[in-house]
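Trying the structure run again after the queue cleared.
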Amino acid sequence: MGGGGQLTEPGEPVSGRDGGVYTWEEVQRHCSRNDQWLVIDRKVYNITQWAKRHPGGFRVISHYAGEDATGASANWWNHRHFQHHAKPNIFSKDPDVNMLHVFVLGATQPVEYGIKKIKYMPYHRQHQYFFLVGPPLLIPVYFHIQIMHTMISRRDWVDLAWSMSYYLRYFSCYVPLYGLFGSLVLISFVRFLESHWFVWVTQMNHLPMDIDHEKRQDWLTMQLQATCNIEQSVFNDWFSGHLNFQIEHHLFPTMPRHNYHLVAPLVRDLCDKHGVPYQMKTMWQGLTDVVGSLKNSGDLWLDAYLHK
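Done. Tokens:
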């Protein structure tokens, strides 16, 4: 990775090139596809050429072009979910908010679609057809297609072979017991239940939160605006696998999840100190907010579609 100079605070003068000192304003100008700088521990790096060889892929590291990437561990950049952690709820950077025109999310996208007269779906009804499209199909259909596409497009042949071997092992074990049709029914039913659990547990923490284009916010603010917590209880901890502490999960993604409740008071104190909202809801409120946020976004789309 190409080396760079030290970083000054915004507004401070830039020294000569020999000194290798840059302001934030200058770093932020290097954010195009063919000109990328980023900052790690207050050191500026020109990653324009190296980014193409980044183990996690060009796309993820490019999300931080012109920004501070301190703390973005390389371990995060090996899967789409880690892009979500790097830039949660940000269009074109967080793959989890790419809804393939099936849904419109947040307060900005619905208006943009409405003004442009985009109507792939009746979005003012999305809070209703969500029950037919989202929870039942996410894992059995969408995730499987996307995972296969990713492995093939990235030429991850070893991963593809291991993935195929799972189905070989599954059918080898269950076809003798249940037959081919019974085995297909079993795996489909399990995926169906898994998909419902996954959608509700993950989206009650994210979907009702701020979803927008890149705002170039600081790390803490960005994570807190995109996530919220669900109240702790024995049931909530068990049902969500401790992902009810979604804020802590985003701030400390490599921490064992059963320890999130230990750091939660410290995170809350930090947020209070810096005036960053720390949102916590009941389980019921979190679940109903998923549907409510879809309805609100759909109403925004309809208003813009009809009147603008």
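The first strand starts at residue 6 and ends at 7. Worth checking whether this holds up in the mutant runs.
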